[in-house]
Design brief:
Layout (H helix, E strand, L loop, with lengths): L1 H7 L5 E10 L11 E2 L1 E14 L4 E6 L4 E6 L8 H13 L7 E7 L9 H17 L8 H12 L7 H8 L4 E6 L5 E5 L7 E7 L7 H19 L9 H4 L5 H25 L7 H13 L6 H12 L4 E5 L6 E7 L3 H15 L5 E5 L6 E2 L1
Parallel strand pairs: 4-6
Antiparallel strand pairs: 1-3, 1-13, 2-7, 3-6, 4-5, 7-8, 9-11, 9-12, 10-11
The structure holds adenosine-5'-diphosphate and magnesium ion.
Length: 367
């Protein structure tokens, strides 16, 4: 690995990689104990690593263009927190983590909602587990990577990103029950069907993301309390319609209908009817726009332009207020749809978006 050789003057003992992800459907359902359906991107974060004799970690990132160095007494901040957090969480779990030199590079866009943070944690975790011969089953790894991000890097996030980065399979989406943490690999082989998922980075400036996220979460928890259920996952559409507050009613309706759309999507994919999930994607977007109110003009414009240009379905993916839009398209129509979005953006004077076609790819692995 050339980045490792540049940083440390020798080849690494091993090279590991973990992907970014997008969520096909199931937004703001995770903290309501519901369902999500992410798939891994071909874009991934690569870590070359070699053991050191002492408990020290020297880490170079090509994207940060910085080398950091820490031992167990230090509290690392900045991008290094995602690496040091993984060392910390493994030690917390009782593992004898080997000291290491690591070189990191990635083609997952940073901060675009494609989960470069989970890709980084998952790649580092997989590398350290293998290097140290640690006995940590794959199904227990996402929770540890999530804990590193929550408690060490200080970013509140659900378990979807790390689950996707670690557990996804090529040609499949990952059906994750956020209550039981059970996963099922659902066939989603778009390429074989002549389809593509166009990922459009809307490049909308993020507005009030953290505050609005917290507000949505509070409203959902309050709605569950009012309804007397453990979480909105347990609510029904008819019970939700009896909620006294109009805003709360719409927020809860998004969550309840979105859970159902995930289940319906899974059913269609199980029987190979990929094109038919399009309307569910579009309905998910309408629900985020009208009931949950987490879209912004750039995002709505991208969805409308993609649909007008012939996409089977389109929706914002991720927490909202910007980020990426997914459009399910015929593979040979992907450039036309991408151009239509660019034209719609130009007409409105928005910063030009960037698009790529995503093939559902595999999870963290040693290369
Ligand atoms: P996202 O996960 O959507 O890309 P986040 O804000 O959660 O956005 O994570 C982005 C942060 O993760 C970056 O600002 C940086 O601190 C860290 N990061 C991700 N990938 C790398 C990398 N290859 N090198 C250094 N830091 C990285
Ligand atoms: Mg992230």
């Amino acid at each position: 690995m050339k980045q490792f050789v540049t940083a440390f003057g020798a080849e690494p003992e091993g090279v590991w990689a973990a992907p970014g992800r997008v969520n096909l459907i199931g937004e703001h359902t995770d903290y309501n104990d519901g369902f999500v359906l992410p798939f891994a991107l071909p874009h991934r974060t690569v870590v070359g690593a070699s053991r050191l004799d002492s408990p020290r970690w020297t880490v170079w990132s090509e994207q940060a263009d910085e080398q950091i160095d820490f031992d167990l007494s230090e509290r690392v901040t900045g991008w290094g927190a995602y690496v040091a957090g993984v060392v910390w969480v493994l030690r917390e779990a009782g593992f004898d983590v080997p000291g290491a030199q690591m070189a990191i590079t990635s083609d997952v866009p940073l901060g675009a909602g494609l989960s470069s943070s989970a890709a980084l944690e998952s790649a580092v975790l997989t590398a350290l587990v293998d290097l140290g011969g640690l006995d940590l089953p794959v199904d227990e790894r996402p929770a540890l990577a999530q804990k590193a991000e929550n408690e060490y890097a200080g970013m509140p996030c659900g378990i979807m990103d790390q689950s996707a980065s670690i557990r996804c399979r090529a040609g499949h989406a990952l059906f994750l029950d956020c209550r039981s943490l059970d996963v099922e690999h659902i066939p989603f082989d778009v390429a074989t069907d002549g389809l593509a998922v166009l990922v459009i980075d809307t490049r909308a400036p993020h507005r009030h993301v953290t505050g609005e996220y917290a507000k949505r979460r509070e409203t959902c928890e309050e709605a569950a309390r009012v309804l007397g259920v453990p979480a909105l996952r347990d609510a029904t559409l008819s019970s939700v319609s009896s909620l006294p507050d109009e805003v709360m009613r719409r927020r809860a309706r998004h969550v309840v209908t979105e859970d159902q759309r995930v289940l319906d999507t899974v059913e269609l994919l199980r029987s190979g009817r990929i094109r038919e999930i399009g309307p569910l994607m579009t309905a998910s977007h309408a629900s985020m726009r009208d009931d949950f109110e987490i879209t912004v003009p750039e995002v709505d414009t991208a969805v409308e332009a993609a649909l007008s240009a012939g996409a089977y379905g389109a929706r914002m993916t991720g927490g909202g207020f910007g980020g990426c839009v997914l459009a399910l398209v015929d593979a040979d129509a992907a450039p036309t749809v991408a151009d239509a979005v660019v034209a719609a953006y130009r007409a409105k004077g928005f910063t030009p978006p960037e698009s790529f076609s995503a093939i559902p790819s595999g999870g963290a692995t040693r290369l």
